Amino acid sequence: MIWLISDIHGGQYIQGLDEYASKCTGNDLLIILGDLELNFRETAENKRFTDYFTSLDCNIAFIDGNHENFDWLYSLPIEDWNGGKIHRVSKNIVHMMRGYIFNVEGYTLLTMGGCKSSQKWRDWGLCWEQELPTEEEIKRAYANLEGDSNRVDYILTHKYHYDSSYADASAFTLEGFTRYAETSVSYKHWYSGHWHRNERLDEKHTVVFDKTICIAKF
Asked: Which pTM was predicted?
């Protein structure tokens, strides 16, 4: 089964991860929807979390949020994985790169990580220029969607927000991609994190936080 949580923030919100680690089997996969914070801060607490997380012996994948160490993440080996590209963290832990469509347990999953950090995080020096998708990554998503007739089972992003202002957004920004996916892609359900709440917004959108949910529920 495919399970989802989000926004662990270096172990600050670890309930869902611990729950999964205690019950997972070899047939399970946990996907974390961003803000994992591996090697994010130069603190003993963050090192302990990174060591704990990377030592877990269960299947885990994650997309990136804005609170990630992208210099470290993008230095990892790139491999093919379930129809897309990943950064390999360990033998059983992978980072799902932006703009790919992955085939997992018979489902197609479109991934688009990234989000803009608030000024607070910029003032603290805890942000990277790679936190927002590049034009190349968004073009990749469009091309992969076109190859699949603009149909996927699930869309996985770190942040979901959509309003009328996106009509003026460039097609190669995260807002422009969100507009396109919302209006031009056929999908069963859209899962996202970022907002630190567990809530089904409507029949096609769910915000995920610290409680594990099964991706095939809807």
From this structure: 0.94
